[in-house]
Amino acid sequence: MRNLFFFITLLVSAESMAQQAASPKLVVGIVVDQMCYEYLYRYSEKFCEGGLKELLGKGTNCRNTQYDYIPTYTGPGHASIYTGTTPSNHGIVANDWYDRSTKGNINCVDDSSVASIGTVSNYGMFSPRNLKANTITDQLKMTYPNAKVISMSIKNRGAILPGGHLSDGSYWYDYATGKFVTSSFYKSELPNWVDEFNDEGYVDKALKQEWNTMLDINAYAESGPDNSPYEHLLPGKVTPTFPYNLKEMTNGINNYELFVYTPFSNTYLTDFAIASIDSEDLGKDNQTDMLCISYSTPDIIGHAFGPYSVEIEDMYIRFDLEIKKLLKELKEKVGEDNFTLFLTADHAVVPVPQYLIDNNLPGGYFFVDNHMIELRAALSDKFGEDLIIVQDNLNVYLNHERIDELNLDLKEVSTYVANIIQRWESVKRVFTGDQLYNASIDDEWMDMVRKGYHHAESGDVIFTLEPGYLAKSTDTETARKGTSHGSAYSYDTHVPLLWYGKNVEVQEVFRNVLISDIAATLAHILYLQNPNSLRGKPIHEVLMK
Ligand SMILES: [Zn+2]
């Protein structure tokens, strides 16, 4: 009997050793905020050896990776990558939305019950409490408490949602001090290594520098002219053109908000990630750890200047060098065969609609404020009062209490609202909550709205716009500059997905891959139970070795 027990113990330990040998020591997740799929190719001649080209040439490239819900925003994107499901399950239905319980606007990572750690500002008062599903990082920590999960980003939501509820440290940028901070949800004080990193004063030094093009400006043939009417002006500038002399632009007064509009912000985050590898002993023992990095500045520069700007091209040429530096450090510190990395985006972006208009392409603007005045008036005529609380993210939130008090039927009021909206120019589709909750899913546009619809968080009537349109409050000169995202169309939904490192084949996958498939694949790489609401399917090509 004792011998049999000994034999079984041997078998079990041999099996778990085999698993440990098959698992990487570290999984690195990189999210590039607002990265379009095409950037991998459009700028490829300008990329160095050892950066993005290394990921493209020596890993698995899922060339047709799509978001399958709306809205394609930052919060829902990060939540979906790491939970392997859509807003209908994880509840992050936008970056900000109307919260019926508090009768006010909430941010996806708001948490008034926690305190800032590492700053006296309010920029630390955030947590993943609004995230209703487990992340793959949660699953790793639940199964293996010794596993380390470290998450970081310039944006709070870019760090908090990937790190999940159990992270050993989720850090984001404090716009008041230029330092990395966290909240009391995670810990009561910053670790020494974070304090030391903050004390190096990288941001203060960077704000005295100039951001100029890395190459001769005439070499940026992949982009439009530097001085373009479609770009926002940064503070302290009279044209949207290089060079950006930060010291002159700020009169020498540190502007920590301006910092995130520069590629220096990507360097700051990479250096922070590299510091965490040593300080947190990531990938050092046989228990797999996870490092989640989300680069926010590509989105911030992208909103201001658009996808055809010299600014975005120069930022990506420099971002490529960050990837090279990170890969070099991972190979040295964790070992070439000991880590697996994936790189994706939380959404992509539409070209500046005014550019589309000027070039006779489909697209334009939908000005919301006047439409809402018209809608409220129509409701008052029909029902005696307007019954609308607010419009947010093209979701119309109706006043349920008043509808009950007036003995009206929510379905009837919603349908009335939907019928008016459907008649508006440049509206593509409109759905009522009742339709989304109960309907079948053979309509692909409705399916995408359904997957983004959460009955407790979303509005009562949701509408979408025609391709190339952006919603703006009112028509102003500024409204027609810069760009955004959020739609169900390919320019927003088609993103890069690259896998690299231990056990990853060199190949291209052309079939449709969904963003929820990333967490499903990670669950198998890590030998974990699937996260609780996972709906994605493993990308079997990545797992073939
Ligand atoms: Zn984003």
3D structure, described in words:
By secondary structure, this protein is α/β, with parallel strands linked by helices. It folds into 2 domains: 26-352 and 495-525, Alkaline Phosphatase, subunit A; 364-480, Gyrase A, domain 2 (2-Layer Sandwich). It has 22 helices and 23 strands. Strands 6-9-8-7-12-1-13-21-2-22 form a 10-stranded mixed beta sheet, sandwiched between helices. The radius of gyration is 24 Å and the shape is globular. It starts with a helix and ends in a 20-residue tail after the last helix. The relative contact order is 0.19. The model is unreliable at 8-12 (pLDDT under 50). Bound molecules: zinc ion. Zinc ion binds at residues 33-34, 74, 77, 299, 346-347.
Task: Jot down its keywords.
four-stranded antiparallel beta sheet; binds zinc ion; Alkaline Phosphatase, subunit A; 17% strand; ten-stranded mixed beta sheet; alpha/beta; 2 domains; 545 residues; single chain
Compose a concise summary of this entry.
By secondary structure, the protein is an alpha/beta fold. It folds into two domains: 26-352 and 495-525, Alkaline Phosphatase, subunit A; 364-480, 2-Layer Sandwich (Gyrase A, domain 2).
Class derived from helix and strand content: alpha/beta
Can you tell me the CATH class of the largest domain?
A: Alpha Beta
Fraction of residues in β-strands: 15-25%
Rg, nearest Å:
24 Å
The low-confidence parts are 8-12
> Major sheet: size, sense and barrel closure?
10 strands, mixed
The name CATH uses for the topology of the largest domain is Alkaline Phosphatase, subunit A
CATH level-4 homologous superfamily of the largest domain: Alkaline Phosphatase, subunit A
Number of strands: 23
Oligomer description: single chain
Do you know the CATH architecture of the largest domain? 3-Layer(aba) Sandwich
Bound molecules: zinc ion
* Total count of domains: 2
Note the gap between the termini.
38 Å
Mean pLDDT: 95
Q: What level of helicity do the residues show?
A: 25-40%
DSSP summary: helix tally: 22
- Estimate the global geometry from the Cα principal axes: globular
Strand order of the largest sheet: 6-9-8-7-12-1-13-21-2-22
